[in-house]
Amino acid sequence: MACGRSAACPEGAVKVVERAGPKPRPFTINHVQTDPPKAIIQAENLTKVYRSGRIEVPAVRGVSFSVQRGEFIAIVGPSGSGKSTLFYLLGGLTHATSGRVVIDGIDFGSLNDAERTRLRKQRIGFVFQRFNLLPTLTAMGNIEIAHAISGNNQPLDHKYLDHLCELLSIQGRLDHRPSELSGGEQQRVAIARALITRPAIILADEPTGNLDTKNSDAVLSMLQRSNKELGQTVLMITHNLEAAAIADRILQVRDGQIVSDTINSQPVPVIASV
User: Fold this and answer.
1) Where are the domains of the chain?
2) Out of 3.40.50.720, 3.40.50.300, 1.10.630.10, 3.40.50.1220, which CATH number does the structure's domain 2-263 have?
3) How far apart are CA 233 and CA 14, in angstroms?
C-alpha cells in the first residue's frame, strides 16, 4: 500500500514522496520509509571479504560515502583496488560482509532476493565493460527485453528510443545482432538498454575499457548527457583518469579503501562524433 503526500500512512506502508528529476516507478515493499532520503546512494562502513577455505581476502574495507541526487561521480583505482567489488555492492549484485548500502532510502540488506531484483530493475541501469548483450537477440531485441523485465506496464516509448538512438548514432544498427556490431556499437546499444527504462541511477563499470578513443568519447559524452540533460545520477568505475575528468566528483580507491574524495570544479565536456 502506498500513501500520497498528505495521506496518513499506516505502519508497514511505503510513503511516496515526489522529487525533482526522473521519477522512480512505484516500489511497494513492506519496509517503512518515513523521511525523504538525503542521498540517493549511501554506503555505510561497507566491507566485503572473500573466503577460500581458511584464507580471507578483504576486497573492500570499511568504505563510507554518499552520492547526492543528480551527481556524476567517478571511482578511480588500479586493478585489484576493490573498485569493481564496490560497484557490485552498490548495485546489489553481491552481499556485503558487513555495513550497508542504501538506495533511494531503501536498505539493500533489508530486502530478500526478489525485492532486491525489483529494486535494481526499477531504479538502476547498468553498463558493463563487456557489454553483456544477449547474442541471439538483435540490438532492438536487447533494448526491448530490458524494458519488458523492468516491471513497467507502459508501452515502450518509441519517441524516447528514437531520441536515444540518435544521440548514440545507432539508428541503422538496431536490426543487427551483437556479433554483427563493432565493440563501440555494442557498448552504445548497452547504454540505450540501460537508459530505456529511465532509471534514477546509472552504474557504469569500466564502460570505455574495451573501446578505442573515438568510441570512448562517444560513450563518455552519452553518460554526461544522461546526467546533465536527463537528470540521472551517474556513478562510473574507471582506472582512466582522463575518463574520470568528466565527473563532478572523483573518489580514489586503493587497497579497498577510499583514499581521497575530490570535487572536480571544472568537469571536462566531451564532444564526440560517431
Assistant:
1) 2-263
2) 3.40.50.300
3) 23
Grid cell, residue 207, equals: 564502460
Taking the C-alpha atoms of residue 93 and residue 29, their distance in angstroms, rounded to an integer, is 19
Spatial strand order in the sheet of 201-205: 124-127, 201-205, 233-238, 72-76, 249-254, 257-263
- Grid cell at residue 134: 544477449
DSSP-based three-state secondary structure for 42: strand
CA distance 49 to 47: 7
Residue 15, pLDDT > 70, answer no
Q: Each residue of 164-176: pLDDT tens digit? A: 999 888 989 999 9
Span 182-216, pLDDT tens digits: 999 999 999 999 999 899 999 999 998 888 888 89
